Amino acid sequence: MNDNRNKSWNNQTVIEEVKAWNQAGKPLYSHYMRQNYQELLAAGIRYYGSWRTAVEAAGIAYDSIRKYRDWSKERIISTIQELEKQGVDLSFRSMMLSKYAPMVYAAIRPNHFGSWKDALAAAGLAPEEIYRYRSWDDDQIITEIKRLKESGADLSSKKMDETANPLIATARRRFGNWGAALERAGIDYNLIRRRRRWTREQILGEIRELNTKGADLRSGEIRRQNPALFAAACKPRFFGSWSKALQASQVSDRSQSGIAA
């Protein structure tokens, strides 16, 4: 609750506070204000006759901030799905602290979904997955990333957004971005990301670097360990096959021994 018991209220300060509260992305519906900023709610009613009038005096359409507004089941589902694509933390606690609290209130009403978990399920999400990663610490996230890598999973951000959004969303919050999380797990993201714009020179440079490190350059091993590099090298506009890419890179015959042509 805001510590504004001794604030000197007047028409202008009410308007300023309403605007500041709104710009901070906090809910303005009366029930929320009564619980979180009762002083402003009381001042608004005192100086403007009603909370609705105070909000509208601040240039905000009151219908746009009403608790349940027009949150139909369909709108709730589509909003949840859109937020999930954006990697937003959809746990109940996080959503209740966000500007989407009115949607959550609407979702848990008996005539809608009855609970937030049921709303998530209706949107095609697995609530247990969302809450599973939410409680993990950094080490657990890193361990899970390593497990996925060992199982041969596609760790590109595009694929992870499609198949393991709660994990990648949590990792982004903890480490700043997905690439940083992979680096913490000892994985070079440049070798696996899908959106890399390859050139012939980059492909050759990558092959030579792997050769210098003593990596196994056989096609099967590269396909498994460096799928993005392998796919790029085999594209017709580059080399057409892995063996031709190796020849163009001029790696030593010793390194190519046992490599299928």
Detailed description of the structure:
- By secondary structure, this protein is mainly α.
- The protein folds into four domains: 11-64, no CATH class; 73-126, no CATH class; 136-191, no CATH class; 200-256, no CATH class.
- It contains 18 helices and no strands.
- It has helices at residues 11-23, 30-36, 38-48, 51-57, 73-85, 92-96, 101-107, 116-122, 127-134, 138-150, 157-163, 165-175, 178-184, 200-212, 219-225, 227-234, 242-249, 253-256.
- Helix 15 crosses helix 16.
- The longest helix has 13 residues, at 11-23.
- The chain is elongated and about 80 Å long.
- The relative contact order is 0.06.
Label this structure with key terms.
single chain; 261 residues; mainly alpha; 4 domains; 18 helices; 60% helix; 0% strand; elongated; disordered C terminus
